[in-house]
Design goal:
CATH class: Alpha Beta
Family: Belongs to the RutC family.
Number of strands: 6
Structural class: alpha+beta
Number of helices: 2
Shape: globular
CATH topology: 60s Ribosomal Protein L30, Chain: A
Helix content: 10-25%
Protein name: Rid family hydrolase
Strand order of the largest sheet: 1-2-3-6-4-5
GO molecular function: hydrolase activity
Keywords: Hydrolase
Order of helices and strands: EEEHEHEE
Largest sheet: 6 strands, mixed
């Protein structure tokens, strides 16, 4: 029997982008990479790393909820850093969102991110 696929698209995702916010495949939820942009716009939130990180993590949380999951069901996150010197500052914000739940995580330095973002994050959760 084929696995049922269901996509979820949040209003916060700019309409010009050709992908969904999250996809549920059976009991697994995949959240697309999110950056700290203004809702529905191709413009970053003002305030630098902290504001971008909080907005991106909020979008990730919303996408998980739309797909029937939550932060405590996340098993893996990947964080893309435009500058690895943001690693420890991001950890404080990330820790505040996840609390005592500590999913597996990778942090990767990249040459650049959409809109000049400081971080992008995606995740996988199980239902």
């Amino acid at each position: 029997m084929a696995t049922k696929l269901e996509t979820f698209r949040l209003d916060s995702l700019p309409s010009v982008l050709p992908f969904c916010s999250a996809l549920r495949a059976g009991e697994t939820v995949y959240v697309s990479g999110v950056i700290g942009h203004l809702p529905g716009e191709l413009q970053l939130v003002p305030g630098g790393l902290e504001a971008e990180a909080r907005q991106a993590l909020s979008y990730m949380k919303d996408a998980l909820q739309a797909a029937g999951a939550s932060l405590d069901r996340v098993v893996k996150c990947t964080v893309y850093f435009a500058d690895m010197s943001d690693f420890f500052a991001f950890n404080k914000i990330y820790g505040a969102f996840f609390g005592s739940h500590q999913p597996a995580r990778s942090g990767i330095a990249v040459a650049g991110l959409a809109l000049g973002a400081r971080i992008e994050i995606d995740c996988v959760a199980v239902l």
